[in-house]
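Tokens as discussed.
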């Protein structure tokens, strides 16, 4: 190795250090003064599971911000009710019945959405189920259905709507993971596995687009990790549930600020990061002390 190569390596290392310091300073600044929220007026926002809970609140709140909202749900009646409530306040909403576990159904609806409304620019993969049992009490069908909805549904939606975002180099993907997608919870073993999968998928997909587009991709990714939300899925929680309305507001704020991963409430993510630097036995006693999670339902 000659002197020129050594100097080049040292310059590259120095450049890396300066970049790291810049982003540390930027992060500190944003923590004190907040991030600017981008405008979603005129964006076409598609939300799965829009018939109730977080999905319904997301649809209403995005519509109030001026977005065109596309509501998807397997339950036609509740989904159309969401769209109806949005139209009653003078905003744009469209309802499509869709089973996200069926790839052909997802692509058929995507074709209609493109023809009747336009290219989706913000995709919210929200649909999910959360049976609460001990691991051995989960039935085969229940586990398969959980992975079909909570994981494969994300894949089919992304395959249907991501290509137009890549073509235009514009878009935002939001995925609902969970605190159970960061740590494991008893009585939620298959669910925790699905939410870990969602988080891994989002990380890998963002990295892939970043590399394949030579760092020029403008498509953003936001993974949301709620703790427990009062949507009817969690039957026997050990602590007070968050409201769907407040959770939806935090999700939209995270998307508008281009935040990559956020827990709801926000303190969970930094708390988990701190706990994980401690010895394993210390992590166990802290988890036992906090005593979070759900009872079997």
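Sequence:
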């Amino acid at each position: 190795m000659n002197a020129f190569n050594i100097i080049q390596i040292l310059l590259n290392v120095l450049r890396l250090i300066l970049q790291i310091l810049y982003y540390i300073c930027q992060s500190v600044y944003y923590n004190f003064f907040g991030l600017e929220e981008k405008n979603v007026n005129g964006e076409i926002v598609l939300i799965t599971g829009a018939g109730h809970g977080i999905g319904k609140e997301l649809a209403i709140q995005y519509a109030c911000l001026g977005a065109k909202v596309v509501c998807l749900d397997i339950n036609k009646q509740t989904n159309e009710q969401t769209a109806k409530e949005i139209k009653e306040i003078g905003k744009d909403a469209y309802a499509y019945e869709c089973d996200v576990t069926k790839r052909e159904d997802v692509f058929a609806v995507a074709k209609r959405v493109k023809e009747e409304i336009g290219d989706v620019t913000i995709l919210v993969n929200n649909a999910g189920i959360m049976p609460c049992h001990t691991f051995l009490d989960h039935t085969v069908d229940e586990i398969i259905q959980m992975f079909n909805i909570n994981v494969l549904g994300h894949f089919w939606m992304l395959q249907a709507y991501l290509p137009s975002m890549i073509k235009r180099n514009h878009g935002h993907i939001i995925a609902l993971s969970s605190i159970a997608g960061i740590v494991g919870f008893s009585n939620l073993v298959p669910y925790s596995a699905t939410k870990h999968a969602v988080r891994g998928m989002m990380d890998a997909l963002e990295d892939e687009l970043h590399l394949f587009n030579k760092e020029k991709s403008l498509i953003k990714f936001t993974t949301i990790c709620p703790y427990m939300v009062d949507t009817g899925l969690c039957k026997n929680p050990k602590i007070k549930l968050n409201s769907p309305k407040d959770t939806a507001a935090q999700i939209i704020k995270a998307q508008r600020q281009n935040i990559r991963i956020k827990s709801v409430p926000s303190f969970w993510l930094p708390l988990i990061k701190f706990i994980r630097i401690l010895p394993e036995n210390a992590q166990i006693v802290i988890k036992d002390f906090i005593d979070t999670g759900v009872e079997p339902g």
